[in-house]
Task: structure prediction
Amino acid sequence: MSKPEIILAIDYGKKRIGLAVSDKMKMIATPIGLIQAKSSLKETVKLLKAKMEQVVIDRGAEISLVVVGMPYRLSGGDSAMTEEVKKFITLLQEEIETPIKSWDERLTSKLAEQSLKERGLNRKKRTKQVDTIAATLVLQNYLDSLRFDL
Result:
């Protein structure tokens, strides 16, 4: 019998990388924390691969897809960060066999920041959580699109 499948979402940042996973029914996104980016992109990818392996163990499920938030400009065009994320995806795809899908993440970090402000968290606490909340929003948007594309 094969393991159930989940989806992992990544909100890539040069300092912190937010992570979220779906439930086994692929309906609800849940934040699972963040990892600190390393000084090189290759080191960061290796750290993320190890984290993914731990998620598989912890969740008792295979990761069937990795969704990476793509930071486009509001106009829809690429930004400097878009190019950085594309490099990250390329390196990650060389390390893992799991398919990777980029997903438009415009405004998710802003929405995450606003949500944390409304909860009364100070700037330091918001900084620690904004990336994981952004990853969760990216994944929930993706999961919602699966249900509405029927």
